[in-house]
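User: My collaborator sent over this chain with a note saying "see what the structure looks like." That's all I know about it. Can you take a look?
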Amino acid sequence: MQRTRLLQRVERIAGCRLTLVLAPSGFGKTTLGAAWAAELSRQGHRLAWLSLEESDNAPGRFAEYLAFAVEQAFAPDGQDAGERIPTHGLDAVQMTATVINRIAQQHGEFFLFIDDLHLLEDEALGAVLYLLRHAPATLHLVLLSRPLPPEALLRACHGEAEYVDAAEMRFNDAETVALFASHARADTAATAAHRLTAGWPAALGILAASGMDGNDSMFSGRSSFLAETHLGVLLEAVLSRLQPDEIALLDATCVTGRMCAPLFADLSGIPQTRELFRRLEHVHCLLSRVSEHDHWFTCHDLVRQGMLARVPTQQAASILRRAGHWHAGQGHWREAVALALRAGDRQLALQWVDEAAPLLFYRGDLLTLREWDGELGLGEDPDANIKILLTIALTRVLAAPGNEAGLHRLLDLIQSRLDGLAGVPEARTVYWHLQAIRSVLAARGERLDEALHLSWECLQQAPIYASLTETVRCVAGYCHLRARRWKEMHEVLTEVSRAPVDQYTFLSTIYRQVLLGLAALTRLRLPEARRCLEEGHALASSRLGPVSVPGALCAAMLGVLQQEALAFDEAERTLVPSLDLVAQSGYPDVIARSFAAAARSAMLRGEHALEQALLDRWDGIASAAGSLQAQVQCAYEKMCALLRAGAPERATARLAHIRRLRARAAAGGAGVLHELHAYADLAEARHAITSERPAEAREVLASVLANAEQCGDGYLAILAGMSLADALFRCADIHRGVERLELTLAAARKAGLGATVLSQPADLTLMHALYRRHAPAGTRRNEVEDYLAQLLDSGAALQRRPAVTLSPREESVLKLLAQDKSNKEISNVLNITPETVKTHVKSIFAKLEVSKRNAAVKRAQLMQLL
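Assistant: Without extra context I'll predict from the sequence alone. Here is the result:
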């Protein structure tokens, strides 16, 4: 029934960031939330609904379902967002960051309902707080929960919250009469029931549906049902009126948690169960659908608790096992394993894990595998099936790249098990899987000679699995990429393209496209790079959904290409949402390209604090991963930023750090690290130029350029060529400087490499002036001048901000925002209504082109409005 006084609160939901509905079980929180959601949907708003279960408190699981719920909300009308989105190595906060970016990209208000929030703890609850702190102004969060301390939630949203508690949720006299009337019950029955229940919705609902009321003889001597424990008396009365098959359905639903008609038919042997579900849902009001159009049913927590107390332990275990077998038969492996564990049958759970693990791995559901690894201790179990151990090792390689020590212990365990398999046919398969994993680890650790040797050994064997073959081909291709052996890389990677793309090979195929895209960008073949990365991104989206690490690798690199085309706004929309996922990927080359591009954009826009923050984050990622090349490249970018900022002493310290890293690389015997030494030389040369030693820089840069051209590294040739032209001009060798600048810019223009040239450390305006003064007339000069003018105009446009004029009232609101005041506090200070404050805040956001409070304050500071 419709409760008008509570339904009207929906207008207040749209006026604040957070709505809290806090009440004990049985007070109708979900019903009220559903009514609000229906009304908001009727008004044309976008919304998502997420109902939580106890298992959703597992790290990452909540955020994964949250991402799917939001994506479902933005799916085109009539279309489904697809299956649950697998995640690859993400924690809850990182996945939540992608959700925030997804919401911020949309227009209009967005409402997110989360039911049973009290089931979340630790990391998952931290993701909700993160969502509140960083959500765009268009997001309105509605949390339905049993009573919990709201302080952390209120702090996260600056106190802007609407609140509904148990007292407001109780039925009043008029609502109770209306409820009983909807069941054709008399007003006197409603009055008696209200006296007995004090308006408690759960008890009232059961009384109204069951035909009982507060005058029933079984309630004599009881003044009210004010406590949840009293519901047992009422439940027993209701059960006495049910048929045996109805009680059996209720028992099975309460034991398993969820029930559908085919599952209950399998458990009970009753072929036609639709009428049973209809009666328990609509007549007795004891079952409810999991979602509006779902064929799965559940029951209220209070009913479940009462029913579970009646079911003998052995009967419950039997139901759980049989339900587990049904789910396993349907391929619902996570549900099957969970039911076996609840039945206390670890062996059965391990049996299903053994069967399902490879399938889930190649499907990309690494989160479930990580959960099983944690729950069952698979990676540390000496009795675990060796194939499970291999799958867990592969999962850890992809999903937990930072836990190297634990992974090496697992590999040692697999090796010890392998030693006992001498003469067994499967020993060969295990051995080459182990070698493949070791080749991946060696490549990540920049032990490129070792990685190439291991991968080549694997490729020399007769093929075992297509997935294994393609994985080691990608490792070998990566090693050739780093050594700039283009022919060998092309041969080993294009062999992959002849393998069919299926559930076992699609991940390797995506990574292959990333490698080909990196190679094409390095060789200044940008259209080819775009084609490879678009193919990889399309495959990742179709197989893994819109949010995944493989997809983010492709998206980030596409953002880099957009930036090179001087489409900075488009590049930022593509690149920024991918950074959190790329940071977790363990792929230093993509991390370097992505963070360098993001920092470059911030520098060109004059947002130097943001540039420094991005470089610091990149440095932290590279250091944690132990990637010497990435650390050197990041240190070079940091040194250039310090030189631009007029901090020569700090720049000199950064150069000393680069020299130490270079010495470590030389002593470590890591193999050919072409880029590491090139960036170290670029740093030496740039420091020499700014220290008025251009002749010294000229010699170093000539060597870098020659090496880059010899090995086909067109990207580094552009960087070295621009710096060499700068050094030649400073050496007063104008003719050669003009010649070098002309050759370099002609190559960059032909390739479409704009942002790199625009952001390189030399003074482009000065070189433009020298070129115009000394370059000989002709077609090439006109082309180069036009290209330089285009680059400089793009840079100037990024620096220019349209004049922002705030009204006096908006200025006052902005100052209070900078003091971290909530809308309510601002309204009190300025003596205006909270609705007026919200209007001013939205206007400020629009003028500053931001969607969050902290971003507004930061942008205002950069524009000197504060």
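A starting point for your reply to your collaborator: Confidence is low (pLDDT under 50) at residues 78-89.
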